[in-house]
Known about the structure:
The chain has 2 domains: 54 residues, Roll (Urease, subunit C, domain 1); 137 residues, Metal-dependent hydrolases (TIM Barrel). The protein has 5 helices and 9 strands; from the N terminus they run ββββββααβαβαβα. Strand 2 and strand 3 form a beta hairpin. The longest helix has 17 residues.
Amino acid sequence: xxxxxxxxxxxxxxxxxxxxxxxxxxxxxxxxxxxxxxxxxxxxxxxxxxxxxxxxxxxxxxxxxxxxxxxxxxxxxxxxxxxxxxxxxxxxxxxxxxxxxxxxxxxxxxxxxxxxxxxxxxxxxxxxxxxxxxxxxxxxxxxxxxxxxxxxxxxxxxxxxxxxxxxxxxxxxxxxxxxxxxxxxxxxxxxxxxxxx
Length: 197
């Protein structure tokens, strides 16, 4: 059993009453066991983090993320959406190998966590979706991730796929990842796949 205690911070509960508390926040084996007041560790396996002068609050939720696009940030700013997609984003994503998606996703996870985000909804990309799940798993994020599907002739060949193949790959991703890491990871199409079977 392991305990983490955030000691002495200003606790923003973000509950229905917008309560602000003083004191400690304690977790045992990743589960909150006390919010507010003074907490005494119940085991010899504990860590105390001094939160004096800090706000302690639940993690933020980012509901629109494209972790695979982190390495493309700042490219072609100022373009209209469809121009930006057609001239920059889709060719970029079509050129990505699995290692590229993994590197982009790991960087995205670090940035999200540094900004206080602990839960995300990622729109995914057509290829290498497993790399997004792996990065979120390794970073400890709570993540709902979907595989993008593209069959339009206007997108680059590297992103175009057949409907049957795309659906089969999406179903495989759901089987492999939905509910993993103690339920932290979910596939955004899980309900659709369950109804289709």
